């Protein structure tokens, strides 16, 4: 069974934590990771791009010139896509880019991402993170002590002081255990867990 060292905020090892082999010691499934990240990225697209076709542009009802005898090409409307100010041909319209990935695949991808971080030794577990007031510098000093730059910080429950202390620190993202996801895990170099959040995640993924 994999074991993680548990530290205090002064970077002193205080204990060890046994974690589930099924969650932190599994083989990474690249296909599941790809599909899940693709799903997350597509879900973030707004899909609000919109263009007007010739029928959507006001005016152009009058024929610019008569059909024959002018020596020019025939034209039926000044809103033709060939004209300046005319409509767009096959332009984008509002749409939903999201795709669906089965729940089992999403779960497998999350386990794969956690196992990859475990294998790369990029997981740090903190016993707790005591802060009595909102202090960005104090929060940043803890991560500087560990030599961390791009960090995903996972809490077991809502903590307004920690959430507000880290929101202006570049490269640090704070989420709660129930919001942990594959994209954020892969997009950050290190993952820092508060000790209770590890068991909370294990309970969700092994149930």
Describe the protein in words.
The protein is an alpha/beta fold. It has a domain at 3-29 and 101-206: Ribosomal Protein L4, Chain: A, CATH 3.40.1370. The protein is built from 7 helices and 6 strands; from the N terminus they run ββαααβαβαβαβα. The chain has helices at 21-24, 30-44, 103-119, 136-146, 160-166, 182-187, 195-206; strands at residues 3-7, 13-18, 123-126, 151-155, 172-176, 190-194. It has a 6-stranded mixed beta sheet with strand order 2-1-3-6-4-5. The radius of gyration is 27 Å and the shape is elongated.
In short:
The protein is an alpha/beta fold and 207 residues long. The protein has seven helices and six strands; from the N terminus they run ββαααβαβαβαβα.
């Amino acid at each position: 069974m994999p074991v993680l060292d548990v530290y205090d905020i002064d970077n002193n090892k205080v204990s060890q934590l046994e974690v589930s082999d099924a969650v932190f010691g599994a083989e990474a499934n690249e296909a599941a990771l790809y599909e899940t990240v693709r799903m997350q990225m597509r879900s973030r697209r707004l899909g609000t791009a919109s263009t007007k076709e010739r029928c959507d542009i006001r005016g152009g009802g009058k024929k610019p010139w008569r059909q024959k005898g002018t020596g020019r090409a025939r034209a039926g409307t000044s809103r033709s896509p060939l004209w300046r100010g005319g409509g767009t041909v096959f332009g984008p319209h509002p749409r939903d880019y999201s795709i669906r990935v089965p729940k089992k695949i999403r779960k497998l991808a999350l386990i794969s991402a956690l196992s990859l971080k475990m294998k790369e030794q990029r997981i740090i577990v903190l016993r707790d993170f005591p802060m009595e007031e909102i202090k960005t510098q104090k929060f940043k000093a803890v991560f500087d002590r560990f030599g961390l730059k791009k960090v995903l910080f996972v809490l077991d429950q809502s903590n307004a002081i920690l959430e507000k202390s880290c929101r202006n620190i570049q490269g640090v993202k704070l989420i709660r255990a129930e919001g942990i996801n594959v994209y954020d895990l892969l997009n950050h170099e290190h993952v820092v867990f508060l000790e209770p959040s590890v068991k909370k995640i294990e309970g969700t993924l092994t149930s």
